[in-house]
Write a structure and sequence with these properties.
The chain is an all-alpha fold. 73% of the residues lie in helices and 3% in strands. It is built from 11 helices and 3 strands; from the N terminus they run E-H-H-H-E-H-H-H-E-H-H-H-H-H. The chain has a 3-stranded mixed β-sheet. Helix 2 runs parallel beside helix 6 and helix 6 runs antiparallel to helix 8. The longest helix is centred in the middle third of the chain and has 34 residues. The termini are far apart.
Length: 310
């Protein structure tokens, strides 16, 4: 048991207070990236809904990914931006628990949807004749619901483990949001076991989904290399390029955050920025700029608007 036990009503987020001279610059930078992230994800949601040719399982998964990513950024970035402009950077204990639960749940959902997108590409390339039967829009919808259920099952479990006991002073979280490692260290009970359990759950979920994606791409590559024509190989690769790029960016930055050894140094606040701000910004950018169907749908929408304006 730790000393200084008391009933805490709020936590203080240290955030970027260690960098007072660049807080205005960080606010402008993060606010700009956040607006671009929202614009990109809302554009994907709008295009995949408006264009009938994009109402296929592949783009239904992309729509689900963009929606989960929009919710994911909403749980953290608005609060972070507000804290950059004020000296009172507090959050209530229940609010901290909700933020952690939604952050972990939406992050887990994001990983599972990326895995399902890999599975979708595996069926489309390795079993093209059976693909329309195996991956219908109804099946896609059920898989997306399962992704949300799986992500929040993990997050509710982890949040319950962390917030199941009381917290001790000092009530200072050395982060810009309620990161599970930073919060669990404030527990009045011996936090080492709880931290080990929640870390292992997160790492297992992260590595498990990543390994499943790797396995699907092993089968995809083995099938693509058997395609006789260079044009056929290029077409198969083009359907996977954007997804594979996002997977590398997402899991790469996530690994830096969750696989960083204790005591290895570095500011956890800065280390988390790529995973919470940069990755959500890059994801819609990659899916829109590297996808011919998305660009064609955008051109058609612009042509339709110019027609009605004339």
């Amino acid at each position: 048991m730790k000393a200084n036990q008391t009933v805490l009503k709020e936590f203080v987020l240290v955030g970027f207070s260690s960098y007072p001279h660049v807080r205005t610059f960080l606010f402008v930078l993060f606010f700009g990236l956040y607006l671009l992230t929202l614009t990109g994800n809302l554009a994907i949601l709008g295009l995949t809904w408006a264009d009938r040719s994009l109402r296929t399982p592949m783009y239904l998964f992309l729509r689900a990914l963009s929606f989960s990513e929009t919710c994911y950024t909403l749980t953290i970035i608005p609060k972070m931006l507000a804290d950059l402009l004020t000296e009172k950077r507090s959050i209530s204990v229940p609010g901290c628990g909700l933020q952690m639960c939604f952050f972990l749940g939406l992050g887990g959902t994001h990983c599972i949807i990326l895995t399902l997108m890999g599975y979708d590409r595996f069926l489309a390339i390795c079993h093209p004749l059976r693909y329309p039967l195996l991956m219908t829009n109804v099946v896609c919808g059920h898989l997306v619901v399962s992704a949300w259920a799986g992500g929040f099952l993990i997050s509710v479990t982890e949040t319950a483990l962390i917030f199941g006991g009381s917290f001790c002073n000092p009530n200072v979280i050395h982060h810009f949001f309620c990161h599970m490692r930073a919060v669990v260290r404030l527990s009045c009970l011996d936090s080492d076991l709880t931290e080990l359990v929640v870390t292992m759950v997160s790492v297992s979920a992260l590595t498990g989904t990543f390994l499943l994606i790797i396995i699907t791409y092993v089968f995809i590559l083995s099938t693509v290399f058997r395609i006789p024509s260079a044009e056929g190989k290029q077409k198969a690769f083009s359907t996977c390029a954007s997804h594979l790029t996002v997977v590398i960016v997402h899991f790469g930055f996530a690994a830096i955050v969750y696989l960083k050894p204790e005591g290895s140094g570095g500011d956890d606040t800065l280390i988390a920025v790529p995973y919470t701000v940069i990755t959500p910004f890059l994801s819609p950018l990659i899916f829109s700029l590297r996808n011919r169907d998305m660009k064609n749908a955008f051109r058609k929408l612009l042509a339709k608007r110019s027609f009605w304006n004339t």
